[in-house]
Amino acid sequence: MNETTLHPRQALLLAFQTSDHTSAETEESLDELQELARSAGLEVLDRLTQAREKMDPGHVFGAGKVTEIKRKIGELGADTAIFDGNLAPSQGRHLEKALGVLLLDRTQLILDIFHRNARTREAHMQVELAQLEYMLPRLVGLWAHLDRERGGIAGSKGAGEKQIDLDRTIVRNRIARLKKDLKHVAQERATQKKRRQDNCFRVSLVGYTNAGKTTLMNRLTDARQLAEDRLFATLDSTTRVMSESMRPKILLSDTVGFIRRLPHELVASFRSTLEVARDADLLLHVVDLHQDTWEEHIAITEKVLEEIEAHQVPRLLVFNKVDRVEDRVRKMLAQHKFPEAVFTSAAQDDPAQMREHIVRFFEKAMITTPLLLEYADYGELSKIYRWSRVDEVRYEQDGIHLLVTSTPANLERIRAIVPVEESQPTPGAP
C-alpha cells in the first residue's frame, strides 16, 4: 500500500461482507466510505462487494473476484481502489500488486482527510503521529526488492533488511519527538485553561462527524467557523464565550467529529485535543436526525467518549436537522423515548432556546444566598460580580446588601472575603 499523500481523482470502492453483517449494513458503510472519498477530493466511479465466510489470507478477495475488480478498474479508468476496512500489511501489498493501482484502506483514507484538513501546528503533529504509527508495522516488504536484485550472504542482513531497520529507527525517533512536542503543547494548554476557565462553566460539543456541531457553535457564539457539508471539516478545538451575562461565564468548545471504526491511532494522537470533552461540565451530544443510522451514530459517539474517559460527564442530547424529518420527530415525541432531549435545526432555529436549555442545566447546580458586604471591603465588590450573578443590590446604612447566585466553589471564595451572611443559602436560582 502506498503511504504517500493522496492525489488520484477516480476511485473504485471495495467491500468484503461476511455473515456477521447484512447487505444493508454493508451498503450503509459503503455510503459513508463514499462520503469520506468525496471529502478527500476523489470521484467514486463504482463499488464492488464480495460475500464470503472468510477473507482470502493473501488477496482478501477470491481469485475470480480479484480478476473482476481488475477488469472493472480497466473499464472505468480508475486509478485508486479503496477497501472498506483495515488491511493487514501483507494483504495490502498483495492486493495492490494484483490490481495495479493505488490501494487504500479505510484508515489510510481517514488519515489522509485529517492530513488535508489540519490547520494548526498541533493538528499537523497529531495527524503525522497517527500516520507514522500506522505506517511503522507496514514498512516490511517495501525494500524486499533490494534483496532479490542483489542477492544476500547467508546469515547476514540483506540490503532490504538494512533499509527497513534504518526506516524503523527514523520513524521511531520521529514518533518519540512528536509525542514529546505534543506533551509540551498539552501542558501549555492546561496552564492556559486553568487561567482562562477558572471561573467559567465549560460546555463541549460532541457527536458524529458532520452532525452540525460547527453550525450550532456559530449560532450560539460569534465563532464564525467555516461550516462545511463534508466529513471531518473541523479538527481543531475552538472555544468561545457563549453567554457574557451568565456568572460564571459559559465557554463553548467545538471538537473533532467521531465516526465508525475511527482509527485508534487518531484517537490516541488527538487525546489531548479531546480532553476538552473530558474536562467539560456539560456535553452537548449533537445527532443528525436526518440520517437513517442516527441510533448507530449515538452508540459510536458514546463508545468514543468512554475511550477518552469522558463518559461520566453529564450530557444533553441535541437532535439536529429536524426540519428535514418532521414525521420522524413527531413519532419520537409521541413515544417519549428521549424526554430530556432537545429537538432543533441549528441552521434555522432561534439559538436563544438552546442557550436557555444550557443555562437551566447550570442553574440547577447553583446556590442563591444573601450577603452583607461592609463598606470597608468595598474593593472586593468587583470579585463578587466576577464570581457570581448579582440578582439584587441595596446600599444601606450598615453596608451593601447583596443577593447572589453562584456555584458552591465560587461561594467558598466569596465567603473568604465576605464573612457576614444574613441567612442560610438556598439551592437554585431565585
Structure report:
With 430 residues, this protein is α/β, with parallel strands linked by helices. The protein folds into four domains: 10-115, Rossmann fold (3-Layer(aba) Sandwich); 118-183; 199-363, 3-Layer(aba) Sandwich (Rossmann fold); 367-427, Alpha-Beta Plaits, CATH 3.30.70. The chain has 15 helices and 14 strands. The chain has helices spanning 23-39, 63-76, 89-99, 106-117, 121-135, 144-150, 159-197, 213-220, 264-269, 271-278, 294-307, 326-335, 351-363, 381-387, 408-417; strands at 10-17, 43-51, 80-83, 102-105, 200-207, 238-243, 249-254, 282-288, 315-320, 342-343, 367-373, 389-396, 399-406, 426-427. The strands form three sheets. Strands 6-7-5-8-9-10 form a six-stranded mixed sheet, with helices on both faces. Strands 2-1-3-4 form a four-stranded parallel sheet, with helices on both faces. It is elongated. The protein starts with 9 loop residues before the first strand and ends with a strand.
